[in-house]
Design goal:
The structure holds two protein chains of two kinds. By secondary structure, chain A is of the alpha+beta class. Helices cover 25% and strands 32% of the residues of chain A. Chain A binds chain B through residues 27-28, 30-46, 48-49, 52-53, 56-57, 708-710, 712-713, 716-717, and chain B through 97-99, 101, 109, 193, 195, 222, 224-230, 232-240, 243-261, 263-264.
Chain lengths: 718, 306
């Protein structure tokens, strides 16, 4: 425990310890000369007591220094247990911040006691000790952290009321997110006794990463950091920590493989049941045996009977932490996707190219009219003028020399509105026309992710073969090839391709073996454009003959489709959600939270016909439904909010491993209330009386040690 | 008498001597001598005073048989006499450097010893005993052979007056020399602070004692030596060998006094066992007290033997 002093100037009296040291040294140097009959007995005596004498002298010196130090300290009015005196004047009011942990893990109950209620009670006890001139604020410890007061306030009742009304959050624990604003609040009030009271359950999962990244010792030393741990022991907890779909695309009436991860955070084996619901309709009830501290991945299959967004819920029986017993997933169920291939026209001799053939095969290998993922339609560009492009999920633009202007305009609207365009090059591509009409002329609405230049290589002689390298296996188009056994697109050979200069915001997904970009992607508006610098047939490359071509085409389209709308997998409680939509015909957007009525969301225009809206009403885990009303009808989107899985692990960090913090352990029924302990830490305990007692004992000891020989000597000879 | 002694020596204090007139020196055991005195001769049958008859036993000299009694009684009787004889003594005075020490008192250890010696010489001479003087330090400095008569006192006092303390102490050698000098049994009165090897001193004293010499040892110590009343960090200088030592006297006192007690006790115990009188003479005590102690002890021993 640290010291502080009521009258720190008295500490200057500590210099007086120089006096005994000086005397000690002085008398060592100035002996009194004395004749003596014979030194024989003196020498023998000195030999016998020389070590004892040295020890005694040092002991006396130490006792004298101790006496003077104690005297000085006693005058300085010391307080044990507070650092405030170092900067704040004696009797200064206190300024403090109570950081109350309301993260998901605080929802646990152990032996019938709710950790969160216990934490709130302790926060109220801390606030009860607030004096009339003290200032305080309350910050909630969750992710990202919530300031209930933007500045320190004198109003104790307001602070207590705010604490009483704090709800349990489903969010994670971001200690830095709460500690940092607390430090900023206290930074200006240097004349106050400053402290931060952190009331938390000390979960390992939140403290460990925090301590590895944050240097607590760098915090201002004059500020007291007080830790009030909540709860004893680790309650057993079983949680659904993950819920997902194996298939990248969920099609209506198709069995969809799904999985869930169940974790047992306890030292005993657990037996539980996982129930899977689609829109409150129970589909599965799976019995699961879990070993201690075990995680099990459970797989099951679901069929979705209607298009649109479906709410899937995986639930376990309620246990000590009920908030993590259910996990939600929003599933976008689609009909088979329509894909349009705009094939190149026959050449002057009437020869048709084979790109269409290869692409159709790749998209629908079995050429099924029913049950295929993609319904493929091939057209020449002249036939597309009357087509409604928004009917298609993706359009392949294959080896086109030029395009009619109306089609270019339709294509631009299609892409910016959320459509996906895949461009394959070939011998008919005119780079000048492409650059002029698909980039320059369109201005900000350009379509090409790269400016096209000359052709490289010779597909006739095939003298040089290039390979695909630097594959971006993080991108959905190539992600599948990141796993061993799924083939290697690098084995394909490219003999000729267009040299391109990527746009600054374009992603290069693959390069050719001499480093030039081969495949690029760029997000344009709500849609995406994938550009392949070579042909879709075997004219310039042998890739269409390789087994990796088909999955590349599939995964590219699926990846583009998945990126449309909301990514509902990774939304944590309290995280803002925002969506960019085409303004065209948009009337209003309504959000329906899990337990509440629909609320209309404010919309902000972003220009270029785009609308942005966002919401922070994502505190509760569950299924959030978005109704986007347009003049053409109502579009439904959805997302789910799930608690962070790490909050389910209730293992606790040992207090001694947390540096800088002073821990106050308190169990109800003890002799001291938490408030008393807080006051002790804040003000310290007055040590003057104790020091005077020690002083008395030290003085007695000094007298005893210093006069021990004299007492014996006076007896002399009888 | 008082006026006369004052003239003889500064060591003869008239008041001291006056207080001792009623006292007599009596040897603890009977010593042999030629001159009639107050001391009983251990040898019977020669002259002066008849003691007793005893029956002849084989081994007695035939010349001691009283033939007159044989003529009357037809039995052999030996006629025994107790003879008054004079006491021959040596005053042996330590004059080493350590004896020059003078604490807070008036007299140094040497002065105190010399005064005691002069006083005892006076008393012995006055009762017809012969007395000599030996002064020593590293070795014997001066020997004045025992003589009787008050005129001899002047020689002794002159020597005491002229003695200058100095050198280290070697009692053993001195006692050897004295033993060679003393042909007949007598009393040796030693004045010393005994700053020599205790084993040597005791051993030599025992040797003298085995020759039937009476030995009295005045262990002369200053009050400061006995109480070590020093408090400061002190540079002690040895008065004999001039060596020095710096120490905290205050801290040393307890150990010093313990060792001093052991030192004295060792002499007391060893000498008593050998039949040697040991007297601790604290220079802070009045001389009369030391002499009274001496005489009281002598009288007690004499009475016990008688």
């Amino acid at each position: 425990m640290p010291f502080s002093f009521g009258h720190p100037w008295f500490l200057l009296g500590g210099l007086s310890i120089a006096v005994p040291i000086y005397l000690h040294l002085y008398y060592r140097k100035k002996p009194v000369p004395k004749d003596f009959p014979s030194l024989r007995l003196i020498r023998l005596s000195v030999e016998a007591i020389i070590r004892r004498m040295k020890l005694r002298n040092l002991l006396i010196l130490a006792l004298r220094i101790l006496i003077l130090t104690l005297l000085t300290l006693a005058f300085a009015k010391p307080f044990l247990g507070s650092l405030f005196g170092t900067t704040a004047p004696s009797g200064a009011p206190a300024a403090f911040v109570v950081i109350l942990d309301n993260s998901l893990s605080m929802g646990a109950s152990h032996q019938g006691i709710s950790l969160f209620n216990s934490a709130k009670a302790k926060a109220l006890e801390v606030l009860d000790k607030m004096g009339p001139y003290d200032k305080a604020a309350v910050i909630l410890l969750n992710d990202p952290g919530t300031m209930l007061f933007s500045q320190l306030t004198w109003d104790k009742s307001e602070l207590k009321e705010a604490v009483r009304n704090v709800p349990l959050s489903a969010a994670g624990t971001n200690i830095f997110g709460a500690l940092n604003p607390a430090l900023k609040l206290l930074a200006p009030v240097k004349n106050f006794k400053r402290s931060i009271y952190l009331i938390t359950d000390m979960t390992n999962s939140s403290w460990k990463p925090f301590l590895t990244t944050y240097d607590l010792s760098a915090i201002d030393k004059s500020l007291d950091l007080v830790l009030i741990p909540i709860g004893e022991g680790i309650p057993p907890n079983v949680a659904v920590t993950e819920l997902g779909i194996e298939s990248p695309l969920v099609l209506k009436d198709r069995p969809t493989p799904m999985w869930a991860t169940i974790a047992n955070y306890s030292i005993r084996p657990q037996k539980t049941r996982l129930s899977v619901f689609i829109e409150d309709d129970k589909k599965h009830d799976i019995s699961i045996d879990l070993q201690p501290n075990d995680k099990k991945r459970v797989t099951f299959s679901c069929e979705f009977k209607s298009e649109g967004v479906a709410h899937v819920r995986a639930a376990l029986p309620t246990d000590s932490l009920s908030q993590d017993d259910t996990r939600h997933l929003a599933v976008k169920v689609m009909a088979p996707q329509k894909v349009l291939i705009i094939k190149p026209p026959p050449d002057r001799e009437g020869n048709i190219t084979k790109e269409d053939l290869f692409l159709r095969f790749a998209l629908n290998p079995l050429n099924r009219s029913q049950g295929a993922t993609f319904n493929v339609e091939s057209r020449y560009v002249d036939e597309t003028v009357s087509l409604e492009l928004t009917r298609y999920s993706a359009i392949f633009l294959v080896n086109q020399r030029d395009l009619p202007e109306p089609f270019v305009n339709n294509l631009t609207s299609f892409v910016l509105g959320g459509g996906n365009l895949i461009i394959f090059c070939g011998s008919r591509v005119d780079p000048e026309w492409y650059n002029a009409n698909l980039i320059d002329k369109l201005g900000g609405k350009y379509l090409l992710p790269a400016r096209v230049f000359k052709r490289v290589g010779n597909a006739v002689s095939k003298s040089v073969a290039y390979q695909l390298t630097d594959l971006d296996t993080g991108h959905p188009a190539f992600k599948i090839f990141g796993t061993d056994g799924n083939g290697d697109p690098g084995k394909a050979q490219v003999y000729e391709f267009f040299q391109v200069k990527p746009d600054s915001s374009a992603l290069v997904l693959a390069r050719l073996s001499h480093g030039l970009p081969g495949i690029l992607e760029e997000k344009r508006g709500q849609g995406r454009v994938l550009f392949v610098a070579f042909t879709a047939d075997t004219a310039w490359t042998n890739w269409p003959l390789k087994p990796t071509f088909l999955p590349f085409i599939h995964q590219s389209i699926i990846g583009m489709l998945k990126k449309q709308g909301l990514n509902s997998d990774s939304i944590l409680p309290g995280t803002p959600v925002s969506i960019l939509l085409q303004e065209e015909g948009l009337k209003k957007v309504e959000l329906t939270p899990p337990h509440g009525p629909a609320q209309e969301l404010p919309i902000r225009k972003e220009g270029e016909g785009l609308i942005h809206f966002s919401t922070v009403l994502t505190d509760q885990p569950g299924f959030y439904k978005l109704s986007i009303e347009r003049s053409s009808g109502i579009q439904t989107e959805a997302f789910t909010v799930n608690p962070p899985p790490e909050e389910s692990d209730l293992d606790r960090m040992e207090i001694r491993k947390v540096p800088r913090f002073i821990a106050i352990k308190h169990t109800p029924g003890g002799t001291q209330t938490l408030g008393d302990k807080v006051a002790l830490v804040r003000e310290g305990s007055e040590m003057g009386i104790s020091l005077l007692w020690i002083l008395l004992i030290a003085a007695f000891l000094e007298t005893l040690v210093a006069n021990l020989s004299t007492e014996v000597g006076k007896k002399g000879f009888s | 008498m008082v006026e006369k002694t004052r003239r003889i020596s500064r060591f003869l204090d008239p008041r001291l001597l006056a207080s001792l007139t009623s006292l007599e020196i009596k040897a603890r055991s009977i010593v042999e001598g030629f001159v009639s005195g107050l001391h009983k001769s251990p040898f019977k049958g020669f002259n002066v005073e008849f003691a007793e008859y005893r029956q002849y036993v084989p081994g007695d000299s035939l010349k001691d048989i009283d033939w007159k009694v044989y003529a009357r009684t037809d039995k052999y009787y030996i006629k025994e006499h107790e003879e008054e004889t004079n006491l021959s003594g040596y005053l042996i005075l330590d004059t080493s450097g350590s004896m020059s020490y003078k604490g807070e008192g008036i007299l140094s250890k040497l002065d105190y010893s010399a005064t005691l010696a002069a006083s005892l010489a006076y008393l012995m001479l006055r009762q017809q005993d012969s007395v000599g003087l030996v002064t020593f330090a590293e070795g014997v400095r001066k020997i004045i052979r025992p003589k009787t008569g008050m005129a001899h006192l002047k020689a002794i006092c002159a020597e005491l007056e002229s003695t200058v303390p100095g050198g280290t102490t070697d009692i053993g050698d001195t006692l050897d020399r004295v033993a060679e000098t003393m042909r007949k049994r007598g009393i040796l009165i030693i004045f010393s602070d005994l700053m020599d090897s205790a084993e040597t001193i005791i051993s030599k004293a025992r040797q003298l004692r085995t020759r039937k010499h009476e030995i009295v040892l005045f262990h002369v110590l200053d009050h400061h030596e006995l109480l070590f009343p020093f408090d400061d960090t002190t540079l002690f200088r040895d008065l004999e060998d001039k060596s020095e030592i710096i120490t905290d006297a205050f801290s040393l006192r307890r150990e010093y006094l313990r060792r001093m007690q052991q030192f004295i006790a060792a002499f007391q115990s060893a000498l008593r066992k050998s039949g040697i009188d040991y007297l601790l003479a604290d220079t802070s005590r009045p001389l009369e007290a030391s002499l009274r102690t001496f005489f009281t002890k002598r009288q007690a021993i004499g009475a016990r033997i008688a």
